[in-house]
Each structure stands twice: as structure tokens, then as C-alpha cells.
Structures
1.
Amino acid sequence: MAKLEKNLRKTYGMGPYPADTRLYVESRPEPLQPYYRSLFIEGERNAVLNFNRLGLAAMELGYLDHAEWAFDRSIDKIEAIFADNDQAKAAKSKFQAESVKEYKGEPYERAMAYYYRGLLYLARDDYENARAMFRSGEYQDTVSEAEDFQADFALLNYLDGWALQCQGRSGDESYAKAAEFREGLTAPAPDHNMLFVTELGAAPVKFGDGQYKEILKFRPDQQFGETSAQPIVVNADSGVVHASPAAYVVEDIYFQASTRGGRPVDGILEGKAQFKETTAAVGNAMNTAGTVTALAGLYGGNSDTALVGAGIALIGGLFGAASEAAKPEADTRQWDNLPHFVSVATDKAPGNGYVYGAEFSGTGAQIPEMQSAAMVAGGDACTVVWTRSRSATAVGESSQVRALTGTKCVNNRKPSSAWMLPSAPGLTLKRRVRSWEPSDEKTLETVCGCSVGSSRVQRDDDWQCKCSEGC
């Protein structure tokens, strides 16, 4: 047993170990297991990213309870940093490298988490909560780590209007706001009660640029060529097309990624890069000045001048060290199963006996064939039909999980906060005792979502998890 434990530690550090991962993943629906595996292994650092990837995949595959749970957890964590209060707006230290921060996403990514949660509320006929999500998503579009911007997320304004319309209220103000950002976008007819939301293409790609890779930039994913969608309603018995309502591309996610308040940007985080160059320049200048002053004192026989010069040089060295400590590398982690475009259309619901989908058109790269709707849901008031040209499951398990599997734990990973992961849909709580825990007493562990390199312990009767630092 001791040899086995030694080998496990040598290979996986403080964990999680394959048995831990299996215990957490095996009770989940098989198609979602790769996403739960990523969530468990990568821990708190990538929690929001993996909740989002899981939620979108679950939504497409019809596991709506898993999708709701995942997006709720993601939004909780987003609002811990980016809610509209003083505590959430506190700036993070310039000396914490971007690559080791907990992922919260760029404004467009955070806004899309609220968008999907709002769609799920529409599917449940919960229009007030849907509106709350769309409006909160609009707020996320305005805030970044260092600045605030004007909102211009027309998709969320349009959906807010639709939720109002489904309640029998006027959505004109929200539709008009959406039209301010998207010329030609019109409000649905008053008697329309079916919304077609179609997503096209693939997510924007993030990359680091600049001398220190400190500038976060975006480029469109050019693998796919679809730029427009045509929803279709087909009679299930005859195969005859019943309707094909006109669709409008209401949102360009690449545009949202590469602009702030509608204004194009060259890149993000230039402020941090300027900080590094400034402090490095100050350090070099002070080193030079200090050396000159010290030499002048020595040659002139003035010991006080020499000491002052040495002090200046020392301070200059500290500035240079501070510059190196900044490590201003851009955070290029990205929500990779987002779409490029989102289109909307509306019509009267045709009743029972119909199937739904969309056809796509574009130029250049490959264009997908007709796709069936991934979700058709709603109630007496309204129905939402949600279709994607590209599957959210095509991205599979994250590359970071593959990189971590079978490798020794390295780096200082932040302990996870309480996740309440045992409340996830379909989870069977599993506990076991590890004999090798560094404690005089055996630690009763529950399968929680702590970061890599953390031990997981049961804290209280509600199964809330508290993780202690490892590595």
C-alpha cells in the first residue's frame, strides 16, 4: 500500500487521482462525462470556463437540468467578481500573472453565459427570470477588469423584449434599443409566439501579442463559412416545408470580443504592458544613475556620495525585479464552443406534428447541411426553437485536462472555495477514507470540485466542501 501511495504521489502529486475522478464522473450521463472530468480535474482556476462548456454541451444534448445547474454555478462565480458592487469591482494585483488567475472570461463570454441561462428560463416559461438574465448579461457586456463601457449587445436587448411580449406586455422599448445597434432589425409581429434562435460558426480565437505576449487579441475562426441561417418548419408526416420565417443576424460574437462599447480595439491589457515597460525603464535609469553617482563619490573621496549612489542603484534593481514579477502575459483561455453569429426569427407556432431545423448559407469555407433543432421548448404563451450549425460537443475534453492527466502536480494552485458540487444532477455521494493524509486522524473525504493539488474534506452537514492547499 505504501509503495502504491508513493507511486501515485510521484505521478499525480497531491491529486486528484484516477480513482477520485472516476468516483466523481461515473454517475453523470455518459455524453457529459468528459466535461465533468475537466471540471473536476482543473478545479477552481478554470471552474467558470468548464461550467460554461458543460452547460452548453448539456443544453444541446437535452440534459437541461445539468445545463441549468452548470450555468447557475458559473454565474455565481462571475458575480463574485463582476457584480455591480464595490467589493466585486476591486482591482486584482498587477503582480498576479494573468495565466494563474481564476478564469472569469472576457465581457462577451460572461454575457453569453447569461444569454444561455436566459434561454433555459424561456424554455421553462419563466419569463421574469429570463429577463433578469438578459439584463444582467447586458451589464456584463459593459465591465472589464479595469474599465466600464457602453452596452451594445443587441441580442440581449431583443430577447428581453421577447420575454416581455410573451408575458403580454410591450417589448417595444427593448426592441428599439436592439435596433439602435443593428440597423434593419425589426420587432416581431404582435401575434408571433415562436422564437427561432440559430447559432452559426465557431467562437473567436484569443491569442497573445506584443513583446511580452501581454496584449490579448482576437481573430475570427475561419474554419467555417456559414454567415446566415434560414429556419424551417416541416410537416412531420408529409415532409412538406410549412414555413421558413425570415431570419436576421442579430449578433456577431467576434465583433463583441474585438470591440468595447462598439469601438474596435487593437488589444486588451495594454495598461499592464505599459506598467512593465515603465518600471523596467525606471530600473535601468536608476541603476545607471546610481552607478555614476557611486563612482563619482569614490573618485572624489566622498564616502557619503558613494553610499547614496549605491542606494540608488539598489532601488533601481528593485524596480527591475518588480517589472519581472509582473509577468503580464495575456490570459488566452477561451470558451471554445461559442458560436460566431446568432440569428433570430419569429412566427406563429404551427401546433403539433411539426419538426424544426435550419439551413445555412455563406461563402468560402465549408457550409454545413441542414441541422435539426437542438431544443424546442416552452409553454402556452411562447416556444423557443434553438439550433446550432456546429455542435457544442465537437470541442470535446479540454486540452488542459489531457495535459494534466498522468503528470505530476506542479505550480502553486489556489485552493478551491465551496462549490457544492455534490448537488449536481445525478450525483451519488461517495465517501472514502485515505490512510495517507498528512494528519494524525484519518480525513473523511467527499468528492468535491477542488483544484488540482488540493485535498477535499467534508466540512458540515450540508455537504459543503472546503479545500485545503496542496502542492
2.
Amino acid sequence: MIESDFAMNLKRKVYQTAVCTMLLALPLSAQAVNSKSKFGITVTECQFDYDSENFCSDRRMRAFAKVMNERQPNFVNGLILYIYHSNHSVINGLNSSYRMVVIDKQKRTVSPFYWAFNAADVPVNGKGEYLEFKFNTQSNRFCFKGNIEAYRNAYLYADMDNKQGFCFTYKGQSGNYAGFDWFEK
């Protein structure tokens, strides 16, 4: 059976349309793979590139769900900033790294913060502490005194000129920074 030119062209166009549709859908499906829903919550980012912290492990997700259900908001817009010890940064036998997530109780979402926090090499306040977090329900700013760590992005408190620490402004939940802008210098 010999197909007409019209039928062959129509088949080609249908095939091309199907291939284009599949290729366009690839980035959408790749984004969705990096989030996970379980235990009644959705973690918006499971892992950052070159980062060993898995925010979507069952252990982490259970802890996030517990915090969401038991804690009151401690940040602006009814959000919870949850800061916890990371399992992946041990120096001299001590767990020295902290991570943070933004928890939205209404949306039941957990958005990991890009940076990891470590104690500074020098005291950061008059109490002699090497680590300090400042935030409250009345402001959209989160400030930290200590060292910041992320792949190819390490910033030391000792190198800062003003010693005010690293401050981030919350703009709303989106992007790799859990809704925060890049820190202010």
C-alpha cells in the first residue's frame, strides 16, 4: 500500500509534535523529582548540588512533620524557622554544622535553606559564644553570626569588616534560598 504525500506529512507532524511535547516536559518532571511528599508534608528541595544533606530522608521528614505539628510560629507571616544539627559535618569528633528549613504550617511545606551554619573561629558576641542566630515574628530578617558553608561558597565571620554577621531578608517561599535573598554584606 502506497501512502499519499499528505498522509506521510501528517504522520511526520504528529511524530514531531509528540517528540517536542516530551522534550518540553522533561524540565518539569526533573524539578518535581527534587521534592517529596510524605508524613503529611512536602519538602520542596531534597538536596542541593554537591551537598550531602538529604532533606527528604524519612528521618528528616518525620522530624520536620513533628516540628510542624508541635511548634508555634517563630518567624514573620506565621512561619517556623527550624534550625538543627546536620549529620554531615563533624570536626574533632563534634557535630559542628547546623541547617535551617522554613516551615509553612498552612501550606504544609518545608523549604530548606541553601547555606549551612558553623561556629566561628572567634567569639561573635560579648558572652564569648561562637555562634548566634537572631530572628523574630515581627521582622522578615534572619541574621547569623558564625561561618557560612555551601559548595564553593564559604564565608568566615572573622573575615567580615563590620562583624554584624550575615543577614538575609525573607521575600516569600521560592528559589534555592527558601525565600530569602542572598545575604547582605
3.
Amino acid sequence: MPAVPAGPQQLPERILDAALQGDQDTYWRLLGQWLQTLPWTGLILSTLGCGLVGAWLGRRHGRLWAGLGWGLLLGPFGWPLAARNPRRKPPPLPR
């Protein structure tokens, strides 16, 4: 069979195959190119916004840092955790 010339459609496929076969240089180059395509400003701002909303909700329930942490970690899914009422301490044991 004659060799098929590498066209523009086959080049990304060959690079991906090389990266999956263990070529470290190709892997890191692909990862770097992929990371450059992400909208970093929007991702960071939305994460900070979710953290601030979580902190606000947590502050209303006496759990500012827990709210901030849940908001930053889980985003909007952490807001119900931030809005929970704090656990009540059990009454002290009689002596």
C-alpha cells in the first residue's frame, strides 16, 4: 500500500498518538497549548465571586471561613453548605 501523506487532519492525530505513547515533550507541549485556550480571567473571577457569596452566606450563620471555603471549593454547590446553621454543642455532662 502506498503511504498516505500527512495532511492537516492527520497531524493532530499523530501528535496525540505520540503523546499517548509516552513522548514527554509532546505531552507537555499539548498540555501547554490546551491551557492557553482556557478563559483564565473568567474562571478566576467566577471562583472568587462564588467564594464571596459563600462567605456572605456563612457570615449570616456565624461561619464566615467555612462559607468562604465551601464557596471557593464547590462554587454554587457549596452555598447550601455555607448557609447551614452551625451545629449545636451538646449540653455539658453532669459531674
